[in-house]
Amino acid sequence: MEKIFNLLRERYKVSEYKNEPFQVLIGTILSQRTKDENTAIAWKSLFSHYKTPKDIAKAPEKKLRELIKVVGFYKVKAERIKEVARILVERYKGEVPRDISELLKLPGVGRKTANCVLAYGFGIPALPVDTHVHRISNRIGLVSTKDPVKTEIELKKVVPKRYWIYLNELLVKFGKDICKPINPKCNLCLIRELCLTGRINKLPQAFIP
Q: How far apart, in Å, are the Cα atoms of 83 and each of 26, 33, 40, 106?
């Protein structure tokens, strides 16, 4: 794992994490089943009008819908982020909890979102597992699992804790660039010699774009 991580880190720049936890939380909810570029547009639009949980909790839901309309399922998400903001104000004094069990109590927050908040909002070692991380971790042979929750559990056994906070971003970039869901560019892969699929298939024609 150390060699894989170092090779990916040489290729892809990663962020220096610690952002505003509430903005990370809302941004991750907005990003669900939505393209990154549309998430960014909605996030900027929303936070240009409302800054805090109290602001969003008081905002008309119709206005929230207008601001985030570019994302998928915007009506559901407008209702959800307003409810999340209300809960944060009423139960947590307007602060985002730092505990995963408390984060998971919030509507629309699953393990990936909760781990994103811990990692990117608080700088706490956490391992967000999305479709890229789940797919690539299994493809290259780090784990052998059927769902993202099990992938997170197994990855934590084989990935040193100091790498957790960076792994999601590295594998997402790698998945969009090289290790694509269909027709991965194995002939260009910088970790080909360390990859289970690459070793087994010896670059068959089907893997060459």
A: 11, 19, 21, 9
pLDDT over threshold 60, residue 207:
no
Write down the pLDDT at residue 106.
Answer: 97
Q: What is the CATH number of domain 21-122?
A: 1.10.340.30
Of 1.10.1670.10, 3.90.870.10, 3.40.50.1360, 2.60.40.1120, which CATH number belongs to 2-13+129-207?
A: 1.10.1670.10
Please report the pLDDT score of residue 18 as a whole number: 66
Other C-beta atoms closer than 10 Å to the C-beta of 8 total: 21
Q: What is the pLDDT of residue 206?
A: 47
pTM value is 0.88
Residue pLDDT, tens place only, 111-134: 999 999 999 999 999 999 999 999
In the chain, where the domains are located: 2-13+129-207, 21-122
